Amino acid sequence: MSEATLDGRGRLTLPKEVRERYGERYRIVQLHDGIKLVPIEDEPLDALRSEFADVQKTAEELRQEARGEALEGAGR
């Protein structure tokens, strides 16, 4: 774990090893007990493709499955 401190202008400098691992763009998410920095991918679509590369079903199959589960959950 590393630390970072705000400068006099309110800027936060992340340690080099953090920037090298996660990149240089982040979303700031406010939580009830603090904040979280979420890295923003340079190519969001490429990140999604790699995240779901092992999914074997088509979008239509996933849609039908979700619809069936929703109907089942609604008691139909």
Automatic annotation (TrEMBL):
It comes from the Archaea. SUPFAM superfamilies: AbrB/MazE/MraZ-like. Residues 4-45 form the SpoVT-AbrB domain. One of its GO terms (molecular function) is DNA binding. Keywords: DNA-binding. Coiled coil: none annotated. SMART domains: SpoVT_AbrB. This is AbrB/MazE/SpoVT family DNA-binding domain-containing protein. It comes from Halovenus salina. The lineage of its organism: Archaea, Methanobacteriati, Methanobacteriota, Stenosarchaea group, Halobacteria.
